[in-house]
Amino acid sequence: MKRITAFVAAIVLLTAGAWAQDGKGIYNKYSDNENVSAVYISSSMFKLMGNKVPNMELGEGSSMNLGSIIKNLNSMYLLDCEDPDLCKEIKADVNKFINKYDFEMLMEIKDKGEVVRVYTAGNEKTVSQFIMTAAEYEAFTFICLDGTMSRADLEKAIAKATQQME
Asked: What is the pTM (predicted TM-score) of this model?
């Protein structure tokens, strides 16, 4: 009986690890934790919002306008955590996801102990996933946008946001 229980426990752990290898899986794994603030936005909500999307705040005095790309999104997952141990766990799952799918790092910002990184996956013309992480010693934020976005529009929005940060 102990062998069966151990076997089932191992399968559950392996399945949980595999499940947490995409934005939705990471969100589902951590969103119910009381130490995590979580936001999910569906494609239906993006269509309702149209181009009337508020700017995404990137930090003090900087924001990114996603209005031109929002209409083609399938989902957005956001996790924000300030529990240092849980942050390490979420960050490890996010890094596994990024490494598994060969995301390209578009940008990295380091300022006073905070590290913000922006990653994309896709081809020369389109981006199928956009990930932004922000890490401090005791905090970690994960944002995943899933859909078909124009690479040119996304890069313009990022360039504009970067100029605001200077």
From this structure: 0.74
